[in-house]
Every structure is written in C-alpha cells, then in structure tokens.
Amino acid sequence: MNETLGLVALGGALPVAWYALASAKTRLELSLAKHRSLAGHPRMARRIAALMPEYRYREDEAFGIDGAPADIVARRRAAFTQLSEQFCTRFARSAALSAEAESGISDMRFVSAYRVPFQFRTLASQLKGGSFVQATRGVTVTDLDGNTFYDLTGSYGVNLFGNDFYKQCIADGSALVGELGPVLGAYHPVVADNVFRLKEISGMDEVSFHMSGTEAVMQAVRLARYHTRRTHLVRFCGAYHGWWGDVQPGIGNPVRARDTHTLKEMDEATLRVLRRRRDIACVLVNPLQALHPNVNAPGDSSLVDSSRRAAYSRESYTRWLIQLRKICDERGIALIFDEVFVGFRLAPGGAQEYFGVHADLVTYGKTLGGGLPIGVVCGKHAWMKRFRDNAPADICFARGTFNSHPYVMGAMNAFLRRLDTAPVRALYDGLEDIWNGRARALNQRLTEAGVPVQVANFSTIWTVTYTQPACYNWLFQHYLRLEGLALSWVGSGRLIFSLNYSAADFDAVANRIVRAALAMQRDGWWWHNPALTNNSIKRRLLREIAREFFSRKIVSRVPI
Ligand SMILES: Cc1ncc(COP(=O)(O)O)c(C=O)c1O
C-alpha cells in the first residue's frame, strides 16, 4: 500500500520537477543572453540611475581632475578662458536667443544639460553656442550670428541628400497637393504612387503611413503580436527604436516594460533563446548598431574617459542577419528591420538590399518624408492585415489623424521620384568605398598629427573615438564648433554626412577636424600620465559618486 502511494506521489512529483527544471533552464538561457553591461539590464540601470547623485566639479578643481601638474592646469585654465571668450563673441546672438527661450522649450533644456558629462556642467555652461540657426546652403548651415558651419548634424539622419534637396521636395510636394489642401481621411492620388514605389523598394505587399518613426515601430510590433498571438518583443542591447515604452525598457521610461526581452546582439546565446522560447512575437533590428553592437548610441554626455569603441564589419553583421532570418522562419517570429535611421542611406533599397536579407516587416521614416515628419511600415499581406476574416471583432486598430497627410505625401512623392533619377542613383555608386576611404585618410592624418583621435564609420555615419585615456574628450565638440563644424547634441558621438559632400567639402571638414585636435592638444587637455587608464578614471568616478551619495544620504523615492 505504502509502496503504491509512494509511486503515485513520485508520479506526481516527476512532472513538477521536470517542469521546474525546464523553466529554470529557460530562465538561465535568458539570463545568459543578456549583455553584461547596464544597457543589457534595463531594470537595474533604471534603479542605479535613480540613485546617482548630482554633483559638479568646482572651477578650481575642474582643470586638474586627472592629476595634471600645475603648469598644465594653468595652460588649460588660460585656454578655457579664451575658448569661452570666443564662444561669447562668435555666437552671441544665437546664444542670447537660446538663453531667452530655453526655459520654455523642454527639449532644449534637456539637450543643453546633456551635451557634456554632468560633473562638468558648471564649466561647460560658459561655452554656449546656441541652438538657433537661420539658413542652409549646400552642405552648410548658418547661425544667427552669420557663422557658417559644415553641417555634420544630419538632422537626426533625415538629411541624406543635402538640405536644398529637401527644400525642393517640400516645395514640389506642396505644389502637387496644394489644390486639395490639408484634407484628411480621403487620400490625395499621390498616395497611390507612393505606395506603388514603396512596394517596389521594400519588396513588400502593403504599406501603412504614420507620423513618426516611433509610431511606425509601435505599429510593426503590434501587428507582429496580433498575428503571432505572442506577447514579447526582442530588442537588442543598446538599440534605439524611438521613445515608446516597450522599446525603451530602461532609463528614460518610468515604468517597467514587461513584455520586452533585451538581448545581446551578435551572440549565440540570443539565438538559443529565440530557438526555445514560445513568447516571442518579433525581433527588432536596428542596423545602425552594426557600428557598435550592444552599446547605446554614443553621446558626449557619457564621454568621461576614452573607452568609447566602434568598428563595423559588413561580413559579420550580414552573417548575423542571415542567422536571425533563419531562426525567425523556423519559429514563426516576425523579423522587423527598423530602417528609420539607415533606410535609403546605405542603398536605394535600404538595409534589406544592402545586406541582402529580407525582413517580414520594415519600418522607414526620417528622410523618406522628403523633409516632413513621417513613419512608414511595409510588410507582406499576412503580417499587415488588421482584421481576421473568421473573427470580425478581433481587430488590430491603428489609425492616426494625420496619417497620409497630403503635404507629407506630396513631399514624399517628390523624394521618391528624385530617388529614381540618374543623378541621385549615381550618388550611391561606390558610396561605401568612398566613405571608408575618407575615414581611412582622416585617420592617417590624425595619426600623423600625433593626436589621440580616430574615427570609425558605417558608410556616412561616423563616430569619434579617443585613443589615449583622458577626462576632457567631451571638450572636443567645442573645438570642432569653433572650427566651423556643426554637430548635433550628442557631439562627437555621431557625425552624419549627407551624400552631397564633395571631395573638396570633405577635405575642408578633415582639415578642420585635424586643426581642432591639434588646438585641443596644444591647450593641454590630452596631457598624459601613464598611470591614467580608463579603468583608473572609472574608479575615481565611482569613488566620487559613492562619496557624494553617502555624504548626502540620498535615498531614492522613485518607485521601480
Ligand atoms: C532606428 C530608429 N527607429 C525609430 C526612431 C524614432 O523615430 P522618430 O524620432 O521619428 O519617432 C529613430 C529615431 O532616431 C530611429 O533611429
């Protein structure tokens, strides 16, 4: 009798134990597929961010934070005084209007605070260049003081063919739809032509129009969840897909993104998770990450040392995408290429054409609007359908008031028609070789000049790296500005070239980058002590943060 009961109990316990073991294994696999950095652990990153105390270097300590001797500190101080005087005189009007407007423009308040590491904010507040500009021509932009800069901002990536190109797209598009005006709901006929062209470009069956890249990504993910009836999206560590909560599970999003897995890119452990889990609806790929897999977008506000690295290998990234494609096919997972940034920049057919890998859904945005706001999803019929024939109440709703706005559709049409012309097609001839060659040549010049600066590039998207441990690299963006180079708020983290940069334009930019680096070196900011390493800088920062934290006894009251 006892034996029988024992067998029955064992029979019941075995499946439970089996289930527990299997779930532990699945959890372990998920943990192994997370990147070891904080970017790979969004919840922990958010907790730590909430505890990070604010503190700033006083002026008397800010110039020698790396332990530089007195003569170097004095040289830096004198150079900084000169730098700030130059900023005051050269950018007076732009800076004055920015100062006046800043308190009322939340975006401006944010970016002006986050241009440099927070410890240096007091110092950097003396280097105000201003956020207002008045004109563009060719590859240049002019500020309110009449200073003309080479435009390396790329307008967040929108500016692919030069600002004049988009001015023309907007003018041509407005003329095309002007008779109808801003009528919404019904379509201007130009929409049909846009859809025809986008189907050709993407190789897909259907298109939906939205007002931003963020919205397009939201819609692509929603469709993937609807059709797979699964909950989770996979995004890769460090990848940006807009500011919607589900694709921004860490710092920046006050609530937890429960249905998001953030996994390591280009890693076998991730493939194992994709092969085994049953909750995954889609995998989101932002091909821009090929330049710095698993790392957040590089910005100078985190440039506290010289550990920023970047390197792009077309072969490795292509191999990775092929592996993803295969597993997504096997597991019925939607592979989504988020081409909002890189679409049209790498090839006329976007990343799909460039890497030779096809996605299930593709999102576009930025440049495709011909200079106006846009987000687009393209996909096969099966993925794009928003209702079920056999369950009419079960719909996947997505409509927006301004979707297919005639003026946006007009500018997009002008963009797409021009994309098809011989002069624009010619811009793609040998594009990658040209820009790789330019990066190589500049790196050679920087090496010959003996400055600790290099660049890494993914076609026309560049980032600056620093080859020697240093605490003041964030200042380089200001030297570049004085040399007449306009950078976006992430500073030297991302330089974006438009395809209309001629060899002469590029040479002028390269000369200025070298001059700026030489000036920064001359001013003592790259004074080097062999004992200074990136790790020793990080250790010092940790000590400062701990001191600040404990001295103020800061306790986070932010619920996580
Ligand atoms: C890859 C990617 N996806 C989505 C977005 C969001 O687009 P938007 O800013 O138009 O909402 C961006 C914006 O930078 C992006 O780079």
- Low-confidence regions: 554-560
The CATH superfamily of the largest domain bears the name: Type I PLP-dependent aspartate aminotransferase-like (Major domain)
Relative strand content = 5-15%
Number of domains: 2
Shape: globular
Q: What is the averaged pLDDT score?
A: 94
The bound ligands are: pyridoxal-5'-phosphate
Quickly count the helices.
20
CATH fold description of the largest domain: Aspartate Aminotransferase, domain 2
Radius of gyration: 26 Å
CATH level 1 name of the largest domain: Alpha Beta
Describe this structure in words.
This protein is an alpha/beta fold and 560 residues long. It folds into two domains: 188 residues, Aspartate Aminotransferase, domain 1, CATH 3.90.1150.10; 250 residues, Type I PLP-dependent aspartate aminotransferase-like (Major domain) (Aspartate Aminotransferase, domain 2), CATH 3.40.640.10. The protein is 46% helix and 13% strand. It has 20 helices and 16 strands. The strands form four sheets. It has a seven-stranded mixed β-sheet, sandwiched between helices. A four-stranded mixed β-sheet has the order 1-2-3-15. The protein has a three-stranded antiparallel β-sheet with strand order 13-14-16. β2 and β3 form a beta hairpin. α1 packs across α11, α8 crosses α15 and α9 packs across α15. The radius of gyration is 26 Å and the shape is globular. It starts with a helix and ends in an 8-residue tail after the last helix. The C terminus is likely disordered. The structure holds pyridoxal-5'-phosphate.
